[in-house]
Amino acid sequence: MNRLKSLVQSGRPAIGSWIGFADPYSVELMADVGFDWLLIDTEHFPIDRHSLRTILVAMKGSESTPVVRLASNSLDHFQTALDLGAQGIVVPMVSSRNDANLAVKSCRYPPIGSRGFAPIRASRYMQDVESYARQANDEIALIVQVETPTAVENIEEILAVPGIDGIFIGPSDLASFMNFRGNIAHPEVKVVLDHLIDQACTRAIPYGLPSWTPAECLGYVARGARLMTIGSDLNFLATGARNSLSNTRALLEAQPPMFFDQNGQRRS
Predict the structure, then answer these.
(1) CATH no. for residue 105?
(2) Is 186 known to be catalytic?
């Protein structure tokens, strides 16, 4: 059972996070936290097929659904991720009906699509090959990423493509394409985000986007979002380290430390 897909289909929000580190220790830690899904980013992080295998093995047995953001909308990327055991796919830069149709075909077995058949790890090394083949087309979550002005123009056509399980909005890329690089809070960017959200809600298509605070996440959930992420492994590491160092230095400034000489006597 695909936990992510089950939650979304029931109308409940699925709260996930991003994976950029391939080290199995960090992956296991994130998987043990209890996120509903983890989005493994092979588009912007140096995660090759061997690293992806390590990540998926480290997630085995956890409650988190492994979802892979592909490097591009290419059949070989789909086949690698799915045959290794990904239970969901996020396809970047889907900007047209044709892009969305291509994603559906690459993600599904015939007669719906054109995915090749060799689910080695995904079928427990062919031990469960019959059940996997029977369920894969229905169980795998296909999420297309809407993050370009062209995608905004074609959003109605994209949302109408059969086989799409949801959209994931990319605020950072949208802001960049709109010449507001690094400023996703710009009013013009907000207008575009609101439009995409309204279109998804009108057509009852699950949608989501990255968030960085609990309040931001819950704000979108209140607007109907079901495919949410909060933070990332990299963000949690950097934020925790900075906060600990900053708080420690603040305490040191408020109460200067005591110093001792070689005989253990306190000195000023």
Answers:
(1) 3.20.20.60
(2) no
